[in-house]
Specification:
Largest sheet: none
Number of strands: 0
CATH class: Mainly Alpha
CATH architecture: Up-down Bundle
Helix content: over 70%
Strand content: under 5%
Radius of gyration: 15 Å
Length: about 120
Amino acid sequence: MRQDELPIFVLWESVLGEVLDRTARFPKSVRFTFGQRIDGLALDLLQDLVRARYQADKGTALTRASLCLEQLRVLCRVAHARGHLDPRSFEFLARRFDEAGRMLGGWLKWGRSSGAADGKAEAGT
């Protein structure tokens, strides 16, 4: 990892690959409903992290990223309950989502408490 890369960004790039790999294996009948929505939310979250890194107003992008993450959690739970996501994959993704959520929450909290324009320092906590 390069020193200027945010830990949450590095984590999410990895999670994104895992999400895309798993949704590609969804049955054809749900690949374009569950699969596309899950993939789209995971990509949207990555874009929001990039926006948060470079925009002066990080709060809006971080709040959107947090919402995307929560929607991903819900859709993956439903996909798992319907049998489209095996238990091992579901558990793996849930753990990674939790890790990303802790990092994201820390960045949000830091930004709110300090009112700082640059949330890089706490993005990995």
